[in-house]
Amino acid sequence: MAEKSSISRVGTTEPFELQISRGQISYHTPLFKYGYNPLIINVNETIWDGGGIYNYPSSAAALDVLSSVAGTDSGITGTVFGLDTNYQEIQEDFTLDASGEYTTTAEFLRVYRAYITGSSSPTGNITFKIGATLHAQITAGENQTLMAVYTVPAGKTLYVTRGIATHGTDTSGAFMTVRFVTREYGSIFRTATKIDLIGNHIDFPFDQPLKITEKTDLEVRAICSKNQNNAIAATFEGILIDNA
Q1: Do 50 and 67 fall into the same domain?
Q2: The pLDDT of residue 65
Q3: How far apart are CA 134 and CA 148, in angstroms?
Q4: Final residue of a domain: which of 138, 162, 181?
Q5: What pLDDT does 15 receive?
Q6: What Cα–Cα distance (Å) separates residue 225 from each residue in 116, 117, 203?
């Protein structure tokens, strides 16, 4: 059977973004990252499952994958994604042993996504650590990390096309300050976008896509104006293009 082709290949128009998602545009890959943090107070936190400001590994190392309910989650399977010491994309499948543990063979310099792949959901939280430091978490019931955190692989450039931030309804007048921050290789984090919102969502398209160079860390952070718990979600999306 012949491959199903994009209609744009026969002289009509199909959206460029759809062609990218279908893998029909060489050297282009879509990116969609989303995060959620249910307990942000008046301290800056990254929008991710683990709470607090995200801690990036200082060097590549094997990940310890652990269930919070130990052997109860024996046999749970999944895949973890990240970058190696050379900032090349890597992934590894895992199966939790009788103690609810697994140690990766690959060494990760960055971790930005993991999800459950089998037919059973874990009962507890699945954490991904180097030593005592948490670098990713699949919260029970989600079956997927929820982390608005990413690092651009070596040899690629990311063009961010859109971001969204959502703050749950609040009746006390508390507002959230949300920042999209980036850190180029060997540099420090700086603010790329900063917004305030209260009980609402903001959609901020980049009509001129924001260029993010290789090896750059990027994440979304938020802080509440009052000393109370508030939940916030954030997404960012764009196109990864291979460098010439």
Answers
A1: no
A2: 98
A3: 15
A4: 138
A5: 86
A6: 35, 39, 21
> Among positive and negative, which fits the CA dihedral 131, 133, 138, 141?
positive
Sign of CA dihedral 62, 160, 34, 222: positive
- The string of pLDDT tens digits covering residues 167-179 is 976 667 888 999 9
- pLDDT mean across residues, the chain: 92
Tens digit of each residue's pLDDT (9 = 90 or more) over 65-81 = 999 999 999 999 999 99
pLDDT score of 7: 59
Output the pLDDT for position 233: 95
Q: Give the dihedral of Cα atoms 187, 189, 191, 195; nearest 10 deg.
A: 170
Q: Does residue 3 sit within a domain? A: no
Nearest to 131 by CA among 37, 66, 196, 81: 66
- The backbone torsions φ and ψ at residue 202, rounded to the nearest 5 degrees and listed phi first, read -125, 130
**Residue 170: domain span:** 26-54+149-242
Residue with tokens 């989650």: 73
- Which residue has tokens 């128009």? 13
| Amino acid letter, 60 | A
Q: Which residue has the higher pLDDT, 221 or 19?
A: 221
Q: Which of 78, 106, 138 is the last residue of a domain?
A: 138
Q: Within the chain, where are the H helices?
A: 16-21
**240, 21 in Cβ contact below 8 A?**
no
